[in-house]
Design goal:
Layout: H1 34-57, H2 79-116, H3 123-142, E1 147-152, H4 157-161, E2 168-172, H5 184-192, E3 198-204, E4 207-213, E5 227-231
Helix pairs in contact: 1-2, 2-3
Length: about 230
């Protein structure tokens, strides 16, 4: 039997902030545009999902013990791969937090830049106009469709609300393009609001609509919505 390893759970890869990392195109993240930061956010989400699948394939999670009761490495697990995967997840989670902070800062800077580039002699009227214009610009970023309806079951809550296949979702309750986390936040919103109306903002062809969807389990089919969504 091998030596007991008290620190077997300790990552072997540095797990501190990674905002200084270079991205694939060789541009420092500190110099990325707002849209590039959002694209990088999506890439990190995708990698985190893939790494989570690696842990799932081993039947473990971030907290599963890797040692036997007496402190020896478990021989039924690929300890090296699990430790490396866990370390990468920790690394990316820190990176993700930093990206979200930069995106939030970028939105504020975009707002300020719009105000600075649209001066008006009449300060009282221009301030209101700039606030309105910049708010509309920021709203346009946030209201980018993040999901699309693939199918709707007749008689389901989604059908009753008026959702149709092909609808693009801009907002689902308080979930939007910036915070949906690969649609996981939609699922959380659905679970929290069973039997209550959720405002769903959609685009259908060129028409913008706000529907009220009430998730429920007693409609005669599977799930709480009766529709299939995929990330746009």
């Amino acid at each position: 039997m091998g030596l007991a390893m008290d620190d077997i759970h300790t990552p072997t890869v540095p797990s501190g902030p990674t905002t200084r990392q270079r991205v694939a195109n060789g541009v420092d993240k500190d110099k990325l545009s707002l849209m590039d930061l959002i694209a990088e956010k999506t890439r990190v989400e995708e990698e985190l999902t893939a790494l989570g699948s690696v842990l799932d394939s081993h039947g473990v999670n971030m907290n599963t013990t890797l040692t036997t009761f007496d402190g020896y490495p478990r021989d039924d697990l690929d300890i090296a791969q699990i430790r490396t995967t866990r370390a990468r997840i920790v690394y990316l989670r820190n990176d993700y937090k930093a990206l979200m902070s930069k995106i939030e800062l970028g939105l504020h800077e975009h707002h300020a830049s719009y105000q600075a580039s649209n001066p008006s002699p009449d300060s009282s009227s221009s301030q209101g106009a700039m606030r309105s214009g910049s708010a509309a610009t920021d709203q346009g970023l946030i209201d980018t469709p993040f999901a699309k309806v693939n199918s709707v079951v007749p008689g389901s809550p989604a059908d009753d609300a008026g959702l149709k296949a092909g609808d693009r979702i801009r907002r689902f309750g308080d979930v939007n393009w910036l915070n949906h986390e690969k649609l996981s936040k939609v699922a959380e919103t659905v679970q929290r609001n069973q039997g209550r109306n959720v405002d769903v903002k959609i685009v259908r062809d060129t028409e913008e609509l706000t529907l009220q969807l009430s998730p429920r389990s007693n409609w005669g089919g599977r799930g709480l919505l009766g529709c299939h969504l995929f990330q746009a």
